[in-house]
Structures are given as structure tokens and as C-alpha cells.
Design brief:
Low-confidence stretches: 1-56, 737-798
Radius of gyration: 48 Å
InterPro entries: DUF6049, Ig-like_fold, TonB_box_CS
Keywords: Membrane, Transmembrane, Transmembrane helix
Strand content: 25-35%
Distance between the termini: 111 Å
Shape: elongated
Largest sheet: 6 strands, mixed
Organism: Streptomyces coeruleofuscus
Strand order of the largest sheet: 27-25-29-30-23-31
Protein name: DUF6049 family protein
Number of strands: 31
């Protein structure tokens, strides 16, 4: 077999080969003893040569094929191969030369996979060397130094036969001091598709071109009229900037016949960046975003790229269908988020891209499905599920068409796993990218040659290809679309194609779901946290005068919490959910009751005020404030154990609500104030305070009345005494004037009370007036001020 591979086309009878080998052994018998004394076998013995190579030379030189053009040659083309050879050994390689070697055609898709796994194995067959002038020579290869090569060969010199995929090996041969004979020291195998003429039956190929990114927008928005959005980072600006990943996806996809698969959240996020937006730094401080021009340019280019092309819209945020099916369906309300995410497409994609997308498709991660995933995927209206052939497998000698009905009006569109995974892995090196392109083309051509029947094939690559992966995808797809064995087809057409009756239509059980994918799923706790956020939002929105300012950003944030992009990033997913929940809690706490200290109540009844504060920018309504007495036998509120009053507070204001209270006994009574929504659900934390009751009895009122009467009588006595004194003073003045004239003698006082007695009475009256009040004196109309520090008591309105 090795001989047939190395010297394709030779033929010799078994008898002749036996005679030749026997003669060689007889001729070499005298030298056998001497040869056994050598440290290594000579090149004359093929098996001895292989062991010597494995010991000290073979594989010591790495060969990298950086480009192969054209990727799929036709008649009259010249195949050019460029790359580098690097001596990884410790000894120089002399008399080195690089040549191309064409191996036999690869008739099955599994043989292509097998060759790709050992593409640099020097022990395997390398094929027949083209040789001659199509060889590049190096007199010396210094250890650790990479040397470039460039070989161009007319395709006619490759001696290709019938249509198919051929092994093309680039081999470096040379000598070392330890092994001074010509040997293969390094090789790199690749694939050369050969279809020089138009195929009679072309394969219809659908290539999905995904525009999906990570979660970037938070639930937080500014308090201004425009509700300036806040981004958790500025990574999206880098992706859409010139040369960025998403910029390359749009630029490369513009000239290809593809089906665009877009996450509406990406469009909404970039559209938000075209206006004012904020970016939160690692220190928690927000700064103004500066990528408005970049965002506008990217959207403009995307609008041009998708014009006239099929656009498939995923549900908003690209929810993880497998996580939802396995861990979320038992959490109340989880499926409703998927329905909301699907409905959000109509308000996003047509508005931004000016095209109507298809929402009939669901795309589980890596196309892995089981019955529960299928059920969830179609629960929001999609009737087509993009699966993959390594999940929904077929036991056929050929690859069937992608579409197949699986019952219940659902169609599984099964993407080809080999072609879909061709561009995964690290393709930063040109050699890795070239090998991926050639392998993809080889799989496509081999698939097309399996049968004369026309089939529809779907390629669903990874959701977020890197720049290098996207470039390799575009290169391969460009060659495929310009080739002779394939033609492009939209995803909708592939889903409607006639299914193969022999194809598998049975969805694999849950036990067949890949454990590696299950480990990356969102846990049940994630959906429980989302449910709590939803409950808090539902309780909050009913009191708002403009609920859209809160419902829309938080609704979209909850969609993002279920995103497929959180796979493999569990810590970041928890952080995002916590941030959403915390921010909503802060808004809810913006409407609250002001705490009260102990309230003192004198008398049978009084008004107790309770204050509601609204720190939101919008007004709140549809709230009721309930004041409840915990000891209604001592203190009643509005004649009962509690009383409710409606509450409406403008944004940024406070509102005091007054309740009538009545006391039945002295002492302390606990009172609780609690806000409720109109549907009877508690809102916010309650406020509890004490009311100290000091009731005024009839006996106390009698004592107070007696004291007032005494004060009146004392005042009347003072008034009469002063009046008599004034009269005496007037009479004495008149008598004194007569004596001064000498007409009459000094008159005796008419009032028997001496002047000294008058002054004494006035002094006594004054002393009584200044005397301290007695217990029976009238009391103030309010309770005495407390001697405690300020703030321990609160006055009430009576």
C-alpha cells in the first residue's frame, strides 16, 4: 500500500517482486555481519531508515503552508504554494530541498478527517514528488531559523486524474551530520479539490453569517428625558471600529451569498451608541462614550450589506435555549421571557436595518438538541430549529439534505458538523488558516461527489468568530461560490427543500446531550434570580406614572441575563444579574416612608402625620398608605384598628398623610405604617413607632376650672381696692389745698384706713399675684415639653 501511494501508476507482478527481493538478500549476505556493527542502518534498508529517522532526524523540520492558490484549481491554472521551513533540530540540515508531492484521491469524508489529524506525520505516505524544476533548494538550514519557500507548478504537472480531493504534501528533505543521506525531515499535508468542469448536479449550500456579541448594555439609564444608556464597558466600540471583529464580519460578508443571523440586542446596543451614552469604568465611575461616529458608520455599512439578503433574527439577547430547557422551565415565568425576547424583534430589526427579518428559526448552542430543547425552542413561535449532524445523526453512506420534519409541525434544519466546525480553533497562523480553508473545500466537494442526487447543505459556524476565523470563512466561501460543484441558497429555501426519506428524524434523548455543553449552562439559581427581579419590577411599575421608563430597560436587561454569551463566564453572569437586581432595588427604595420617632398624644383625639418620600424623577400613584394600631384597645386609627388613605407624590417631592386617632386609655401603643399597591401587595419596608397617650379626665378639668375661678375673684378684689384708694387720694388732695390757703385747718382723714394700711394692702395683693400656681390652677392645652434630648418626641396636630 505504501508503494502504491508513493509510486502511483506503477505495477509489477508478485513473482517478479519476489525474485528481485530474493536476489538483493543473497547479494547482501556477505555484508550482513559488517552492517550489524554500524551504529545505524544504511539507506538501503527501508525499515532501518524509518527507525533512524524517528530516532534523530525525521520531524526535526517544521513545514508551514501559508498559502495555496488557487484553492480549487481548474484546467490551465498554476498552483502556487508559499510557506516557511524551520529547522527545530540541533544540527544543521544540508542539501535541503522542498518539493510538492501529490498523493492518491480521498474518496470519503472520514479519510479527510483522518489525514487532517496527522497532517505533519513524516512516517505516513507523502505521495509522488513533482520534482524537477519545481523544487526549491537550501544549501544549509540553520537550527532555529525559518526560511521561506515559494513553489509554482502548472496544474497539468500534478498529474491529477478524475474529479475529487487529492492529498497535496509539501515535504522538506535533506541530510544531517548524524544521518548523511537524503531523507524526509518535515512534511505538511493539505487538500487539493479538483473539479475542473461544471458538475452535473450542484450541491445547494447555505452559509449562516452570525452577527452576535457579548452583553454590553446595563439596565441603568440616565434621569434625563432621553434616558441616556449606560454600558458596562467599551468593548463593543472596539468590535465595530475599523479592523474590529464585527467590522470585519460586515465587510467580509458584504460580497458573499450568505444568510445573516443577527441578535437584535447587538443592533439595539450599537444604535444606542449613535446618541449620547455612558460607559462605566472598572472603578465604577461613568464617563461619556465617544464612539458615536463609529457606531453610525457601522450601522450604515450593515444596512447596505443586508440589502436584498435574507436576515434571520434571533430572539432579543440570544437566549440560551438549552439552559432554559434544562434548568429554567420549572421556574415560573421563565418561558415568558423567551416570548418577550421574540416579540422585541419587531421593535428593533426593522427599525434599524429597514428590512423585515425572519423569526421562524431557533438556534440552540452548537446545534445540540434533545426533546426538551426542541419544545422550548418552538414555544415562542419558531417552527424551525437549527440542529447539527453530530447531534441528530444519520446512519447513511452519504450526507442527506438538511431539512427533515420531526413532527408537530416542526422542521429540524440539520447543519453539517464537519463543515460547520472547520473554522474553529486558533487560526492566527496563516498555515492553520490555509489548512482550514482547504479542508472545508475538500469536505464540500467530497460530499457533492457522494451521489448524483442534488442535496441542500447548511453550514452553521460558531456564533462569534474571531477576525482570523472570519477571514478564513470568507476565503473558503468565496472559493466555494466561484467553484464548479456548489451553488448558494438561503436558509428559508433550505428549510423548505424536499427532505430525504432515509434521513434520521428522531430527536436524540436528553442523555445524549454533550456533558461539556451542559457544564456551561446557566443554573436554576440564575432563573430564580431573574424571576425575583421580574416580581419586583411588576410590583414597582404599577405605581409609576410613566412605567415605560423602567419596564423597557429592565425587560431588555432580563433578556440579556439569559444570553448564550454567558456560557463559560459564570462569574460575569452572576455579576450582571446582581447589578440589575441591585439597581432595581435602589429605584424601589426611592419611594419610601420617612421614619418616625415616638409621638406624644394628649387628649382623647389627635391627627398623626406620616410622610411618604419620592426620590424618583417621575411621579407615583396608585399607592395606599395603611396606618395600623398594634393595640387598638388603647389607640384606634380612624375609629378602627387601621385606616387606609390613597397616596400620590410628584417626582422629587414628599407628601404627608394625616390620620385621625382616638385614645381610650393612657400608656404606649405601637403603630405601623405600610405602603400597599392597589392590588394589595406590600410596597417597601414598614415604619413602626410608639404613641404615648396621656388622657385628660373630668376630675382634672374640674380642678382646672376651680383654679380659673380663683384667679377671677382675686382680680376683682384687686380692682375694688385700687378704686377705693384712688378716691381717698382725691379727698386728701382737696383738703391739702385748703390748708395751703390758710382758710381752714388741716382736715382729718375721712377714710378710717391709714395710708400705711393702703400700702400694705397693695403689697399683699401684689404678693398674691406673684405667688406660684397651685395644682388646681388652669393647665396648658398641650402636653408639657419633654426633658429628653430633641427628637425623641413628635408633636401632632389636634
Amino acid at each position: 500500500m505504501a508503494e502504491a501511494a508513493d509510486f502511483q501508476g506503477t505495477s509489477a507482478s508478485p513473482a517478479r517482486r519476489w525474485l528481485r527481493r530474493t536476489g538483493a538478500l543473497l547479494a547482501g549476505a556477505p555484508l550482513l555481519a559488517g552492517l550489524l556493527q554500524l551504529p545505524a542502518a544504511t539507506p538501503a534498508d527501508a525499515s532501518g531508515q524509518e527507525s533512524a529517522q524517528a530516532a534523530s532526524g525525521a520531524g526535526s523540520v517544521s513545514v508551514a503552508v501559508d498559502s495555496l492558490t488557487p484553492s480549487a484549481p481548474t484546467e490551465g491554472d498554476t498552483v502556487s504554494v508559499t510557506g516557511t521551513v524551520t529547522n527545530n533540530g540541533k544540527q544543521p540540515v544540508t542539501d535541503a530541498h522542498v518539493d510538492l508531492r501529490v498523493g492518491p484521491s480521498l474518496d470519503t469524508r472520514s479519510s479527510i478527517d483522518a489525514l487532517a489529524k496527522k497532517s505533519d506525520d513524516v512516517q505516513g505516505p507523502t505521495g509522488k514528488a513533482v520534482g524537477g524544476k519545481y523544487t526549491e533548494k537550501f544549501s544549509n538550514l540553520t537550527p532555529g531559523v525559518a526560511e521561506p519557500f515559494n513553489i509554482s507548478v502548472p496544474v497539468d504537472e500534478l498529474d491529477l486524474g478524475q474529479d475529487g480531493v487529492y492529498q497535496l504534501a509539501v515535504a522538506l528533505s535533506g541530510e544531517t551530520a548524524a544521518q548523511p543521506w537524503d531523507q524526509v525531515l518535515g512534511v505538511q499535508r493539505t487538500f487539493l479539490p479538483w473539479q475542473p468542469e461544471e458538475a452535473g448536479t450542484k450541491t445547494k449550500t447555505t452559509f449562516l453569517w452570525p452577527l452576535v456579541s457579548d452583553v454590553h448594555m446595563t439596565a441603568e439609564t440616565g434621569s434625563n428625558e432621553q434616558q441616556t444608556p449606560v454600558f458596562s464597558n467599551d468593548d463593543l466600540a472596539e468590535e465595530i471600529a475599523p479592523g474590529g471583529r464585527l467590522d470585519q464580519m460586515v465587510s467580509l460578508g458584504k460580497g458573499l451569498d450568505i444568510t445573516w443571523v443577527i441578535d437584535p440586542d447587538l443592533l439595539a446596543s450599537v444604535d444606542a451608541m449613535t446618541k449620547n451614552y455612558e460607559v462605566r469604568g472598572e472603578d465604577g465611575v461613568t464617563t461619556s462614550g465617544r464612539s458615536q461616529a463609529v457606531a453610525k458608520q457601522w450601522l450604515s455599512e450593515l444596512q447596505q450589506a443586508v440589502a436584498g439578503k435574507e436576515v434571520v433574527a434571533l430572539p432579543f439577547g440570544d437566549p440560551d435555549l438549552a439552559s432554559l430547557a434544562h434548568n429554567g422551565t420549572t421556574v415560573t415565568g421563565s418561558l415568558s421571557h423567551l416570548k418577550e425576547a421574540t416579540d422585541a424583534v419587531d421593535n428593533t430589526v426593522p427599525t434599524i436595518l429597514h428590512t423585515k427579518p425572519s423569526t421562524d428559526f431557533a438556534w440552540p448552542v452548537d446545534g445540540a438538541v434533545d426533546p426538551s430543547i426542541m419544545k422550548v425552542a418552538t414555544s415562542a413561535g419558531a417552527d424551525k430549529v437549527i440542529a447539527r449532524s453530530d447531534s441528530l445523526q444519520d446512519d447513511l453512506s452519504y450526507t442527506p439534505s438538511a431539512a427533515r420534519p420531526i413532527g408537530g409541525g416542526t422542521t429540524a434544519v440539520v447543519a453539517d458538523s464537519r463543515m460547520s466546525t472547520a473554522f474553529q480553533g486558533n487560526l492566527t497562523r496563516a498555515s492553520a488558516s490555509t489548512l482550514a480553508v482547504q479542508r472545508f473545500l475538500a469536505q464540500s466537494l467530497t460530499l457533492g461527489l457522494q451521489t448524483g442526487k442534488q442535496r441542500s447543505v447548511v453550514v452553521a459556524p460558531q456564533r462569534t468568530p474571531s477576525v482570523n476565523q472570519a477571514q478564513a470563512m470568507a476565503e473558503a466561501l468565496g472559493t466555494l461560490q466561484g467553484g464548479n460543484w456548489s451553488e448558494s441558497q438561503d436558509l428559508s429555501a433550505a428549510a423548505k427543500a424536499k427532505p430525504d426519506p432515509a434521513a434520521n428524524r428522531k430527536v436524540p434523548p436528553a442523555s445524549a446531550y454533550p456533558p461539556s455543553l451542559r457544564k456551561q449552562e446557566l443554573p436554576r439559581a440564575a432563573f430564580e434570580q431573574i424571576a425575583r427581579t421580574r416580581d419586583d419590577l411588576d410590583n414597582f411599575k404599577v405605581i409609576l406614572t410613566d412605567e415605560s421608563r423602567v419596564v423597557t430597560p429592565f425587560g431588555r436587561a432580563m433578556n440579556r441575563e439569559m444570553s448564550t454569551s454567558w456560557r463559560g463566564r459564570g462569574v460575569a453572569a452572576v455579576g450582571y444579574r446582581d447589578a440589575v437586581e441591585s439597581y432595581l432595588g435602589g429605584l424601589i427604595d426611592g419611594v419610601k416612608l420617612i421614619k418616625k420617632s415616638e409621638t406624644k398624644l394628649s387628649g382623647r383625639s389627635a391627627m398623626i402625620p406620616v410622610t411618604v418620600q419620592n426620590n424618583l424623577v417621575q411621579g407615583v400613584e396608585h399607592l395606599e398608605l395603611r396606618l395600623t394600631s398594634k393595640n387598638p384597645t388603647r389607640l384606634k386609627i380612624g375609629g378602627n384598628a387601621y385606616e387606609e388613605q390613597p397616596v400620590a407624590v410628584n417626582g422629587g417631592h414628599s407628601q404627608s398623610v394625616k390620620f385621625t386617632t382616638s385614645a381610650n386609655a393612657n400608656g404606649r401603643a405601637k403603630v405601623e405604617a405600610q405602603l400597599y399597591t392597589e392590588d394589595g401587595r406590600k410596597y417597601g419596608e414598614p415604619v413602626t413607632f410608639d404613641v404615648k397617650v396621656t388622657e385628660v379626665t373630668p376630675t382634672v378639668m374640674l380642678v382646672i376650672g376651680g383654679g380659673v375661678l380663683l384667679l377671677v375673684l382675686a382680680g376683682f378684689r384687686m380692682y375694688t381696692q385700687r378704686k377705693r384708694a384712688a378716691a381717698r387720694e382725691a379727698a386728701e388732695d382737696a383738703a391739702g389745698e385748703t390748708d395751703d390757703d390758710g382758710d381752714n385747718p388741716v382736715a382729718a382723714p375721712q377714710n378710717p384706713e391709714a395710708p400705711g394700711d393702703r400700702h400694705k394692702d397693695e403689697s399683699e395683693a401684689g404678693s398674691r399675684a406673684d405667688a406660684p400656681q397651685q395644682p388646681s390652677d388652669p393647665a396648658p392645652d398641650t402636653a408639657a415639653e419633654s426633658a429628653d434630648p430633641s427628637g425623641t418626641g413628635e408633636r401632632v396636630d389636634r
